[in-house]
Amino acid sequence: MFTGIIQAVGKVVDTQPRGGDMRLRIHTGKLSLDDVALGDSICTNGVCLTVIELPGDGYWADVSVESLNFTTLGDLVMGSVVNLEKALTPQSRLGGHIVSGHVDGVGEVVSLTEDARSIRAVLRAPDQLARYIAHKGSICIDGISLTVNAVNGAEFDLNIIPQTMTETVFGHYRIGSRVNLEVDVIARYLERLIQGDAAANVSGSGLSMEALAENGFLGGVNTGVWKQ
Fold first, then answer.
1. 214 vs 143: which has the higher pLDDT
2. Which of 61, 141, 144, 182 is the most exposed place for a label (fewest CB within 10 A)?
3. Number of domains the chain contains
């Protein structure tokens, strides 16, 4: 588990295809690995990876086919920069929000514009994730905990302060850049709980007004029409 507060920017120094998946070597730069052991987790651009070797200046990690198919890790090449965060401990400050390192989908940078000393970024999420993104809610972008300023369909606005631009990979983004997205874990579990016993038979259709009404969340709704 992680907080979404980036501790260092690392660099990919080796990639090795391994029978359909991949092994990555990450140089961790200023991130100390003194308290990291084999088998520990490090969030790498928002993806929870397991440390399998510690060569001294970084770590090796295996990237599964699942991660290659549903994250941007397959886009990494020698020299790519990545956000890094070590796993949360009981003594850590929860400065961001609860992040699992389990990426929900890949988004795209739509625009980047100056907004005083900050950058206003608009990103587009996959349509199936849009319902989990809320105004003033939290979202994780390549491992960075950020607050959603506005939502318009599948697009959402973020305010990126100078500290975030310089201390994370956000400063490397351009229009069209692909990013790993992890929605708020509370939203995911809330949807599943509201579905109740029907969850086992759900085929990805998500919540409906009828389902909310049946579970007591919208007492004034009947088949999508407000009662008078």
1. 143
2. 61
3. 3
181/193 same-domain check? no
Residue 137 and residue 163 share a domain: yes
* Domain assignment present for 119: yes
**Span 217-228, pLDDT tens digits:** 665 544 444 333
The CA-to-CA distance between both ends of the chain, in Å, stands at 46
Whether 27 and 47 map to the same domain: the answer is: yes
Which CATH number do you get for residue 77?
A: 2.40.30.20
- From CA 48, how far away is CA 3, in angstroms rounded? 12
In a domain, residue 115? The reply is yes
